[in-house]
Amino acid sequence: DTGVSQNPRHKITKRGQNVTFRCDPISEHNRLYWYRQTLGQGPEFLTYFQNEAQLEKSRLLSDRFSAERPKGSFSTLEIQRTEQGDSAMYLCASSLIGGPNYGYTFGSGTRLTVV
Amino acid sequence: TQLLEQSPQFLSIQEGENLTVYCNSSSVFSSLQWYRQEPGEGPVLLVTVVTGGEVKKLKRLTFQFGDARKDSSLHITAAQPGDTGLYLCAVIMNYGGSQGNLIFGKGTKLSVKP
Known about the structure:
Distance between the termini of chain A: 36 Å
Number of strands of chain A: 11
Radius of gyration of chain A: 13 Å
Helix content of chain A: under 10%
Largest sheet of chain A: 7 strands, mixed
Strand content of chain B: over 45%
Number of helices of chain B: 0
Helix content of chain B: under 10%
Shape of chain B: globular
Number of helices of chain A: 0
Shape of chain A: globular
Radius of gyration of chain B: 14 Å
Oligomer: heterodimer
Number of strands of chain B: 11
Structural class of chain B: mainly beta
């Protein structure tokens, strides 16, 4: 098992462009989560999926953000019309459904810089 | 308002010193997790505490969950440069009777100088 994989690791884009990030979770994990982390802050929850169903979205997830998890495997997070305030580390995590002893495994993140 | 308050925000110490960092809330939680994050990487789970008053040890790290399950502490004995990183506490929100997403504190950034 190679853990949670995120691509790309780094992305630099011009303001107004669209970007898409990919997350491949641990294969047997049915939950997949997206977080955003800015410098000096803890990760902030964006959204999560159970299999292919998107169960919860944070108010941070504006209408420029969309996430999908087709077939309950990998997930994509798209940001349309990027703004400088979108510059952050975007983290993906996966877990099994269960109690608190079922750990969350995070990927290494995608660092987005909007110029 | 922040659900989880972590203190101190920054901590810079010499190798061999002991330290304690705190995670506090006014809410009661069924469990709490601690993560360590290194620059450019995702958080890595260190421990989950579920019982009020519980103490767990991981080598030189000691984690305690408050009796009222509102707070937690992480104590590091004889800190080493390899302990450098961002220490995050997090709680699991419930969704439909099972675990949902994690909510994190802002973290304590620890620097251990040789």
